[in-house]
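User: Could you check the structure of this?
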Amino acid sequence: MIAFKRGINPLSLEEEITLGEWWSDEYLTKKASKLKSIWSWNGKYDLLKDALFLCNNDHCTYCDCHPLKDDRGFEIDHFKPKSKFPLEAFTYLNLFPSCNECNKKGSKYDVTLVKPDEKNYQFEDFFRYDSFNGEILPNPSKSEENQKRAKVTIEMFKLNIGSKPRNRITAIKKEMKCDTPFDERPYRYGY
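Assistant: Sure, the predicted structure tokens are below.
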């Protein structure tokens, strides 16, 4: 999870508020009627996708896989789930580019999650990369609070589940043999 540097918000504050209120009304009305609400970007998907895509150079915000255009897919993650925070569903500061694997947290949320656009965020303050097994682990040299936040984040985004650790090792070994610019490398914390 490399620091996320946000670009310019493609939506005005008024649009964020209006769209958030629209989704909140839609979601709460359906929920009260015990009907399933169907999410819609209300015509703003491409605009938000393009803006977010530029912020992280085609990397997943959470696991840092690259490129997002391949079989991992590009999705927009609501850091605070739209089902629990409907008014923030279109808030730019709540949206992150994600691979489809990391975007499976659903409505789970924990206030201790590490948010990669936090002021002064650095990977090493929370995590360490184990080059032997490819896992991302809490950094034992940091505070208990930071270790706890790292653990919650690793579990919530399933950063060590399935083929993710193996994919990291394979990609990093391959890229170390190439002269690929740093920001175009997958798993930038492994170098």
